[in-house]
Please model this.
Amino acid sequence: MTKQRIRVKICGITRAIDAQKVALAGADALGLVFYLGSPRVVSLHQAQSIVAALPPFVTTVGLFVNADAQEVKHVLSQIPLDVLQFHGEESPQYCQSFARPYIKAIRMRPDTDVKHIAKIYAKAQALLLDNYIRGIKGGTGSQFDWQWFPHDVHKPLILAGGLQPDNVAKAIKITQPYAVDVSGGVEAAKGIKDSDKILEFIQQVNQGGA
Model:
């Protein structure tokens, strides 16, 4: 049986040049943050220039946190995003209301019942599992206990939180996720990606998933 390739999403892209680096390095998707509370937030103009710079077959993901529905619709009217990613307390009905595939982020604690959440968000394309830190909605830069990662959920699961080139292969061996999501772990500074770190990260993912 052929082992499934682990997909890679690089989040928090703020520059067109970094988007090109990410695409050329072989990432499957990149994330654009539309949350004012993030140091990696992008304006509509930035997002437009980033998306315009991408080659074919790279999925664009827009990240929102408890955004007003009209705000999301306005972004979608200006940016051809492929997938939406929600990091707040958005309801399934809200997440499904934009005629786009969506990913629901889950902040992991020891007692988080991912299987139950997967039933609630049954129409989510995937669930993204990140660390829980009070007051922080994603982009924590820290990892949860990978032993909490469930293996009985019949939905693609994306591992996030504290991943970097020197730990992602180990993380994959333990969790066997559908995909991994990294932001700060491949940066030279907040919002500025490092080409060497990106290449090393993707190489480690490919080796860890082999």
Remarks:
- The longest helix spans residues 195-208.
- The chain has a mean pLDDT of 94.
- The beta strands are 7-10, 29-33, 59-64, 83-86, 102-108, 126-131, 157-160, 179-182, 187-189, 192-193.
